[in-house]
Write a structure and sequence with these properties.
419 residues; alpha/beta; five-stranded parallel beta sheet; 10 helices
Length: 419
């Protein structure tokens, strides 16, 4: 039976919000739980949008975090298709798009992120796409299938994870693909020049064309449709459709207007401490929008990946209930491209490491790569090698010096290192 004297409100209908609601009930909270989402669909997981769902392997129903009937059975009140437009901290009220006011005792902001838009002429043409929501993926899946049948061209702005996964999906349909990327390799800000070329070769083998060192400068149309694109170095590429995959920005407008502290510098997001509490003691944040003062890494970090939403939503829920929480998960994400599967653990931005060590066969794309600073593992990437995430994360978490030669030797068990 619901105790109406306490109300916890969750703004955001993604994985973080849904798992937070689930955790509140699992931990025994008997008050009202209200989940607000500006999407009409029940909460769903986003990774399949650029992977299995986009390629047609995953069914639509498999995307949802819970069966729709679960919310009623758990006494979770859903306000779907209703954006939260204002947060009044003085009255502890969330104002919805239809004017309804929802009062809270404790609030969780799991507002996620939005794809960054291209700031070039031609973005209003039919055939310019973004990929963040289920509706985007449904539309794009039809587009890729049509391009494959008609030998059409897709231009992708950005060679990050979304750009590369969509490139692989597009090639599976038979579409022609050109990727425009200002850096010299794909995934440059994550993997650096040492490993980025692995993915250049992978995609080129599958027919993807790359144009590095350039940005889109114009999308040129004909009769309201995309016809070709121009880059800032003067080149042109044929295009029937364009995907903007140039990153995502945290959705912080609600928090900012309410006067909550935001993360400074290039991190972005809603500033939270290790318990995921914002500058307002009754408001927490989780998922893509939260910039956490990370206890393990010693800096403020915002992570836009599935595992962070999966884990930070429940952590925030426990903190909302007054439990002791220190959110120190090692950042983790995964990707699937063609016959290559990979997992990445840790955090090693450019300039943070002084060497990269690989064990296994990079040429066969069966290897583990490690980013080190002063012989301490900052991050690890396993490509088509499995069941090593645990040992990799233990090396990162332990922070002990390791012998690079032993680290690169497949005959030396990872579990034996870092002791």
């Amino acid at each position: 039976m619901v105790d109406a004297h306490r109300t916890f409100v969750i703004v955001g209908g993604g994985l973080a919000g849904a798992k937070a609601a689930e955790t509140l009930r699992a931990e025994g909270f008997t008050g009202r739980v209200i989940l607000i989402s500006d999407e009409r669909d029940h909460p769903y997981e986003r990774p399949p949008l650029s992977k299995g769902y986009l390629t047609g392997v995953d069914a639509r129903d498999s995307l949802f975090v819970h069966e729709p009937a679960w919310y009623a059975s758990a006494d979770i009140e859903l306000r779907l298709g209703q954006p939260a437009v204002r947060l009044d901290r003085a009255t502890k009220t969330v104002v919805l798009g239809d004017g309804a006011r929802v009062r809270y005792d404790t609030l969780l902001l799991a507002t996620g992120a939005e794809p960054r838009r291209l700031d070039v002429p031609g973005t209003t043409l039919a055939g310019v796409h973004h990929l963040r929501r289920l509706a985007h993926a449904e539309r794009l899946r039809g587009v890729l299938a049509a391009l494959g049948k008609e030998n059409g061209h897709l231009v992708i702005a950005g060679a990050g994870w979304i750009g590369l996964e969509v490139a692989a999906a597009a090639r599976s349909y038979g579409a022609e693909v050109t990727v425009v990327e200002p850096e010299p390799t794909p995934l440059h800000s994550v993997l650096g020049p040492e490993l980025g070329t692995v993915f250049t070769d992978l995609h080129r083998e599958h027919g993807v064309r790359f144009h590095f060192g350039a940005r889109l400068s114009e999308i040129v149309g004909e009769d309201g449709l995309v016809h070709h694109v121009r880059t800032d170095d003067g080149d042109e590429h044929p295009a029937h459709d364009v995907l903007a995959a140039i990153g995502a920005a945290p959705r912080v407008a609600l928090a900012e207007a309410a006067g909550l502290e935001l993360a400074e510098g290039g991190v972005g997001g809603i500033a939270v401490d290790a318990s995921l509490r914002t500058s307002d003691p009754d408001i927490f944040a989780a998922g893509d929008a939260a910039a956490v003062r990370h206890p393990l890494l010693g800096e403020r970090l915002r992570v836009e990946h599935w595992a962070n939403a999966l884990n930070s939503g429940p952590a925030a829920a426990r903190a909302m209930l007054g439990e002791e929480v220190s959110y120190d998960r090692v950042p983790y994400f995964f990707s699937d491209q063609y016959d290559v599967g990979l997992e990445y653990s840790g955090y090693a931005p450019p300039g943070a490491y002084d060497q990269v060590v690989c064990r296994g066969d990079v040429s066969k794309r069966e290897f583990v790569a490690f980013w080190l600073r002063e012989n301490r593992v900052l991050a690890g990437l396993n490509v088509n090698i499995w069941d090593v995430t645990g040992p990799i994360q233990r090396l990162i978490r332990g922070g002990a010096e390791v012998d690079p030669l032993a680290l690169g030797d497949p005959a030396v068990p990872l579990d034996s290192l870092g002791d």
